[in-house]
Amino acid sequence: MSYDWKAALVFVGTLALLSAVGRFLAFQVPALQRMRALNREADRAKLSRDRFRAVVKDNNRVGLITNLVFYVTILPLCVNLEPRPLWRQGVDIVGVLLVFDLFYYLTHRFVFHGRLLRKVHALHHQARTPTYIDALYVHPLETFIGLVLFLGSIPLITAVTGGPLNAFGMAVATLTFTQLNQLNHTYVNLPYFPFKTVDYITSIHAAHHVDMNQGNFATLTMLYDWLFGTLEQPVSRPAP
Ligand SMILES: [Zn+2]
Ligand SMILES: [Zn+2]
């Protein structure tokens, strides 16, 4: 096991670059620009409340510190820059995402909706018609737990596969995690080709916000809700 700080730096740079390029390309599409404007308008009204702004600020601060500590201490032990065949990259990326999604499903269903942290999680559930900013309207303890579950999946898959993972591959896994988590809370009303999948993804998590104890506890895929019988069908959403 070696401390590869260069690989960790490449991870952070790739993540920032892919996020910026992805955002730029996505918002060249007029339909997505329209949805962004709708979300921004609703977000502005929510952020005008001091209490709302304070929660988002605390969430961001905890997220930043948790990420930075992980990037400096654990990540350099888990990644390197050795090239991998594409299939291996795919297996590592899907492995990290599926392990996290299982951890998150169990934690969300039994801890956040269980007795232990129900009140903590209730803060996030104040949003009945989620928009973009509600992904960040989360109690700092919940933010910390969620991030630890995701970041912890990286050393776990490193240990299981017997060695460091590729820094680019892990940046793609992390980008997928952050973007899907954000997309889940975005208001989208585009139920036609080619946006049907995006529309469906957002409406699945919106159903959890409408009727919070029924189902849709996972955050990246519908696999575990389907497997454990908690998959709830999307609901039609009023405009925010
Ligand atoms: Zn949510
Ligand atoms: Zn919930």
The major sheet is characterized as: 2 strands, parallel
- How many separate helices? 10
Bound molecules: zinc ion
Query: What is the terminal-to-terminal distance?
Result: 50 Å
- The average pLDDT value, as a whole number, equals 95
Give, in order, the helices and strands.
Answer: HHHHEHHHEHHH
Tally the beta strands: 2
Characterise the protein shown here:
The chain is mainly α and 240 residues long. Helix content is 66%, strand content 2%. It has a two-stranded parallel ribbon with strand order 1-2. Helix 1 (5-26) crosses helix 8. The relative contact order is 0.16. The structure holds zinc ion (ZN) (2 copies). Residues 108, 112-113, 121, 125, 208, 212 line the site of one zinc ion (ZN). One zinc ion (ZN) is lined by residues 124, 185, 205, 209.
In short:
The protein is mainly alpha-helical.
Structural descriptors:
single chain; 240 residues; 10 helices; 2 strands; globular; binds zinc ion
Task: Set out the fold topology.
Layout (H helix, E strand, L loop, with lengths): L4 H22 L3 H18 L2 H24 L1 H4 E2 L5 H27 L5 H5 L17 H22 L3 E2 H17 L12 H15 L12 H5 L13
Parallel strand pairs: 1-2
